[in-house]
Structures are given as structure tokens and as C-alpha cells.
Amino acid sequence: MVILGIGTNLGDRLMHLRHALQAIKKIPHLSVQQVSPVYLSDALLPENAPSSWNMPYLNFAIRCETTLNPYELLSLLKNTEQQLGRSPEKVWGPRIIDIDLLAWDDLIQYDSQLHIPHEHLHERPFALWPLADIAPHWVYPLPGPLQGKTAIELANQWGPRHLQNAPLHAQQIQQRVDTPQLMGIVNVTSNSFSSDGWLNKTTSVIEHIHHLVESGADIIDIGAEATGPDAIPIDPETEWFRLESVLMQVLSERKNMVISPKISIDTRHAETAKRALLLGVDWINDVSGLENESMCKIMLDHSCDIVFMHHLGIPVEKNKTLPLNNDVISAVYASAKAQLFKLEKRGISKERLIFDVGIGYGKTATQSLELIKHIDMFHSLGIRLLVGHSRKSFLTLFTHQDAANRDIETVAISQYLAKKDVHFLRVHDVAANARGIKTLTVL
């Protein structure tokens, strides 16, 4: 059993950790067995360090099995760090990625190349806590008063993991790097289907966005036009009037959040997308599937990620669905593949594109459920997948509760989708979904 610790305090920290995990999974003769939660902590600084180094770290740990020897693995890990952008000469200071060998069964190895176990492990909650999460019965091997104690015994010295009472204010956060990223829904409308509209509530909506991020959201999806059944379309000017103040405030405020989220704008209007991108949003979530020529032109002028969704019309028409005698998987797949071909031909790269199968948009409840059950078929498109299933009407297959009370069913579907390696889940109750998926990772 080998425990690796991975950390970063530069740039898009969660993205760097995810890239590191994927790179480590590709190392020959090494298999990843379990991934820990992520921990946030202050930077550990040497004396007289410049103030610019004082940037919070994110850390997690990986439990692995390998047939490599420690020196072989160390060499491959150093190569991985460099491939991910780390300067090989940097020892202290901010770093894009840092991979350490924390422990290796009961091995004790201290020389010019290796320090196993990590000599400061017992003093650092940002390293010991994630180790204890994935190897609670690992036994501390070094001679002294701690010898023979298990990882969980050592980790308990700092109390609960979420209260910032440990050294360096270390705390476990809700975002993970081995499960789907959660997109928190913010509807700046008065007629959301799930009765969660935030129109004319700017202060409250910013507080809500803080809560979504603290609960585990990586992405905040802000929309100002309802598109569900019976929704009334609005023009771009009305949409922007609703969005502008909220958007400007959240873009200013996100640096103060526990994790700086990506901001997505849920819009089918090219004018709205252009204005939002000029302010600095990260994603455009186009429910009309990038079918608008003006929207495509704007996307070519920017480098944002783009969600395009399958639908049969916006807003949704209740009686307009895919034919009941058709194979819904084949129909949606063929449509996605054709649209993907058109977008690539226009010059929009696959790396920027994310496909949403459009649960409830032109599908019956049974068809929507079929898409979820067979979501892994869409991985062969070669792009990232997003599913927006939260509180939707297809869940009436399981409950007679109204939309606002379908979070139990939503979490169950999210857990299934997590096992199918869906990249993004668009949900209302981020906290419940994060907790449900987190529980799944240890089973």
C-alpha cells in the first residue's frame, strides 16, 4: 500500500488536482485504489517568505498499489509534476502541483532522495487527515511515542475536520476531484418550475451562491429565462436587465468564496452571452443547442466552455416529444453527433464542448429515464457530459411530490450518474447531492 499526497496553491486548484489524479492513473504498474476528500489550508511558509507566497493550498491523498520500487515511482512522480507544469528546481513557494510519497506500508526509508514516511506527517493535518480517510489502519512505523498508533488515532488529535480548529486552519471541503462536478442552479426569475426564483433579490442571491459553493458546487449556473413547460419567452434586453447586477456582484465576490467557482450563464440569446463573456464568465450553457448562427460566431471570439443541449423546442411544449416507437438513445446520440460535427467544422474545438442530453426537453418521463439509464453510451462522443435531472417531472415516475420536494429522488439519480462517470451534474440542492455522492465513494 502506497499513499501519495497531492497539493496545489496556484491558479485553478481543483483543476490542477484533477489533472494530477488523471496523470497518476496513467502511470504504468500503479493502480489507484481510493481517493480522499479535499482539504483547504493556509500555506506552510518558511521564515521571511514573501507575502506573495501566502496563498491557501488544496490537498488530497491517493491510496495505490504498485509493483514499482520506491525510487522508480519517485522518478515517475517527478516527471508527472513537470508534465503538469511544475518547475523542477522549486522546493518552497507557490506551486502548480506537488506530489509526495507520504507512506509505503511499514517502510522506513530516509536518504538523499526519499523520506518515507514523510517526516512531518504527524504534524500536518492537511496530509494526515486525507491519509486517515483512505488508510485509517495504517500504523505509524517511526520509533518514538507515536510508534504503533494508527492513522485514525493520530488524525483525531485535531478534532472534527470541518471546523478550521487544526493547525493552518485546515478543513475538509465538500468539492471532490474523483466524482462529477456539481453545478449549482441559480434562477433569476419569478417563474422557475421548482419555485426557487431569485428575481429582485440581489443580496439574498449572493448569499445563496456562497452557500452553494460551501456546499460543494464547482460551477454556478445563472439563468434569467425560464424554459420549462408553460414558460413565457423573454427578449435579450429583459434577460440582461435581470442578470446584470447579480452577475457583476458574483464575479466580484467569488474571490472571497472558499473555492472560487466557475460562473456559467444559462442563455439561448447571443446578445446576452456576449455581454456576459465580456464581464468574465467562464461558461455559456445554451439550452438551444448552439443552433443559432449568431451564438456560434460569438463562441468563436471567445475561449469559454460551452454546453449544448438536445431539445425539440424552447420553451418546452408538453405534447411535443420524440416518437414513442423510436429508440430514444439512438435518436439523441445521432443528433448530438451531427451537431458536434457542425460545430467542429465551424472551428469550435471538442475540448470546449459539453453535451447535455436534455432531460425533459422533448422527451417523455420514460424516455428521460432511458437516457439516464444508458448515459454511458454518450461517452463515445468523445466530449464531456452534463446531466440536468434535478427535481424534473420525470421523477414523478417515483414520487407524487411537487418539484421542490424531489431532492431525494434527485440524489439517487446523481449517485447512479456518478458511477457512470458523468462529468457534471446540474442540481438545485448542492449540499444533499454532494453528501450523497461523497457517501458513495467509500462504499
Defining traits:
443 residues; alpha/beta; eight-stranded parallel beta barrel; six-stranded antiparallel beta sheet; 12 helices; 16 strands
Q: What value does the average pLDDT take? A: 93
Structural class call reads alpha/beta
Spatial arrangement of strands, main beta sheet: 9-10-11-12-13-14-15-16
Described by its quaternary structure, the protein is single chain
Could you tell me the strand content as a percent range? Answer: 15-25%
Q: Summarize the main sheet.
A: 8 strands, parallel, barrel
Q: Work out the helix count.
A: 12
Instruction: Tell me how many strands there are.
Output: 16
- Taking pLDDT < 50 over at least 5 consecutive residues as the criterion, the unreliable ranges are none
The ordered string of helix (H) and strand (E) elements is EHEEEHEEEHHEEHEHEHEHEHEHEHEH
Distance between the termini: 19 Å
What is the global morphology?
elongated
Question: What does the model show?
Answer:
By secondary structure, the protein is of the alpha/beta class. It contains 12 helices and 16 strands. The protein has helices at 13-25, 70-83, 125-134, 151-155, 202-215, 236-253, 270-279, 293-300, 328-346, 365-373, 407-419, 430-440; strands at 2-8, 30-35, 39-41, 57-66, 98-104, 109-110, 115-116, 171-172, 181-187, 217-223, 262-266, 283-286, 305-309, 353-356, 384-387, 424-427. The strands form 3 sheets. Strands 9-10-11-12-13-14-15-16 form an 8-stranded parallel barrel, surrounded by 5 helices. Helix 11 (407-419) links the parallel strand 15 and strand 16. The two termini are 19 Å apart. The mean pLDDT is 93.
